[in-house]
Structure formats: C-alpha cells, structure tokens
Design a protein that fits this description.
Distance between the termini: 171 Å
Largest sheet: 10 strands, antiparallel
CATH architecture of the largest domain: Beta Barrel
Order of helices and strands: HHHEEEEEEEHEEE
Number of domains: 2
Number of helices: 4
Oligomer: single chain
CATH class of the largest domain: Mainly Beta
Radius of gyration: 51 Å
Length: 222
Amino acid sequence: MKMKTTSIGMVLLLTIGVITAVSFSLGCTEQEEAPIEPSDNTSVEPVENTPAEPAENTSVEPAENISAESIENTPAESAEITPVESAGSAGSTTEELEPVSADNITSIEWQWASFQDSDSPETQITVPDPENYTLAFFDDGTYYIKADCNSGSGTYVLEGNNLTLGPVTITLMACGPESMDGEYLSLLPTVEAVALEDGQLVLYPGNEGDKMFFTNGGEAEQ
C-alpha cells in the first residue's frame, strides 16, 4: 500500500510539473510575440508622414512666388519712369536759346496766339481773338498788357534770355465765362525766359515744357 501511494504521488507531481512547464512556455511565447506589433507601428508611421509634407511645401511654393513677382515687376516699373528725362530736355532747351535783344521786342504789340502745355507738347491750344490778349515792352523798362476786358502795366527785366515780369497793376472786371483772362494773368507772372522763333515771341512760364506763342500785331503805342 505504501508503494502504491508513493507512485500515485509521483505521478501527480510529474503531472503538475508538466502543466506548469507548458503554461510557462505559452506565456513566454505570448510575451515574445506581443512587442512585434508596437515596434512595427512606431517605426513605420512617423518616418513616412513627418518629413514628406514639410519638404514639398517649403521648397516649391515660396521659391516660385518670390522669383516670379520680383523679376517681372521690378524692371517694368523702373523702365516707365520719365519725369527725369523730360525735365532735363526742357531745361536744356532754354539754356540753348539765343540771347534776345530788347530792340527786337520793344514797341511791338505782341498778341497771344497759342499755348503749348507740357502735358501734351505735340499739340497747341489756340487762343480765340488774340488781339484781346496783348503784351508790349518799352525802352524805359515798362510793359503793358491787355487781358480781354482788363488792362494794366508793370516793369520788366531782360537779361539775355532771362525775362522777369514784375507785379502788374490791372483793372478787375468780369469778362465772361468764355474769357481766357484768368489763364493769361496767371501765366505771365511765372515767365522765366524769352525767345524769338520764326518771327514769333515765345515766353517760357515756370512749368518746364510750357510755352506761350505771340504773333506780331504791329507797332505799340505807349
């Protein structure tokens, strides 16, 4: 009886040992297989998604926008700048004029015939009734003007081509809406130079490129 009891105990111990060994081996197998999935997920997803998008956006779009706008717009704007050239050409025109002698312009009734604006130098504005807008210089340094229904006089200084018309004492009558007396009286005080071209008297107001053309209306009486 003791031998049977001992053998039965041995069998039970062996059975328990086998079950324990099997369960231990299964647990180890699950632990070894478990880290495989997280290792795959952590290594693949960040590497593929992170560097791809910023690399494409930062290198392509800014480079195209900066180069296209700066290259196309900058020279076009600088090429269209013309006031410097026009100012230089107008200044050189007055400097190249031949000096005017007072004997060639005094005691003549000069009639304002047309006006050339610097904004449209290729055209001239014709003055209606030039005999109503006159200018006469005299040897004693005085000048006489007629501005439509108004008239007056002042003093002038002529040195070569430089002409300065002093303040004028003039009547102040309303000549009507179609009169050009306002334009005439506003231009004369700004005259800086004078010239003779093809028998016409040409006055140069302060705005470079502007010209006032006068025709010879005959002898003027003081």
